[in-house]
């Protein structure tokens, strides 16, 4: 069984963080690695995750941190919110660079043109545009953010 390069990088970084006594980093990486392991043993048979699958787990973990930070902020627990944000930053380093609003906007605008040229209108256009956009932004923009932008550009157009 060969280890994926991304997963082994996480393990190496964890070892490094432990040696450096970097509590935040080691705790974050430990939780992420256990989420990866949990994913590997779920289902009918244990298996090794591909780098893409490992990335999806990391993205899910990063998203959890952002949502928790938001909840803590709303609950007036600034210290916990800050910790969640810091963990999110650590995880973001392992993910592809997120698209800026401008980059995402131009991909969406192009997809809207493409879908309209293919005859998609109204609600059907939303699905058609998402089908075009999703593969282009995979892992580099959150689904909700993409959908909101698509909806916005369809109602504006």
Q: What would your notes on this structure say?
A:
With 157 residues, the protein is mainly alpha-helical. It has helices spanning 5-19, 23-41, 51-74, 78-92, 101-117, 122-137, 143-156. Helix 2 (23-41) packs across helix 4 (78-92), helix 5 (101-117) crosses helix 6 (122-137) and helix 6 (122-137) crosses helix 7 (143-156). The radius of gyration is 19 Å and the shape is globular. The mean pLDDT is 89.
Distance between the first and last residues' Cα: 52 Å
Q: Kindly state the percentage of residues in helix.
A: over 70%
Main beta sheet: none
Query: How many distinct beta strands?
Result: 0
Q: What order do the SSEs take from the amino end to the carboxyl end, as H and E?
A: HHHHHHH
Tell me the fraction of residues in β-strands, as a range: under 5%
Output mean pLDDT: 89
Give short descriptive properties of this protein.
mainly alpha, globular
């Amino acid at each position: 069984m060969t280890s994926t390069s991304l997963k082994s990088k996480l393990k190496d970084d964890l070892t490094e963080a432990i040696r450096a006594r970097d509590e935040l980093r080691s705790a974050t990486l430990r939780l992420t690695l256990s989420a990866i392991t949990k994913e590997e043993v779920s289902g009918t048979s244990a298996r090794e995750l591909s780098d893409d699958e490992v990335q999806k787990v990391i993205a899910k973990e990063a998203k959890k941190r952002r949502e928790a930070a938001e909840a803590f902020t709303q609950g007036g627990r600034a210290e916990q919110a800050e910790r969640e944000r810091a963990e999110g930053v650590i995880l973001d380093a392992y993910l592809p660079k997120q698209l800026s609003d401008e980059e995402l906007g131009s991909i969406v605008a192009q997809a809207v043109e493409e879908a309209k040229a293919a005859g998609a209108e109204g609600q059907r256009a939303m699905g058609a545009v998402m089908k075009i956009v999703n593969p282009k932004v995979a892992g580099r923009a959150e689904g909700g953010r993409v959908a909101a932008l698509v909806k916005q550009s369809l109602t504006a157009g």
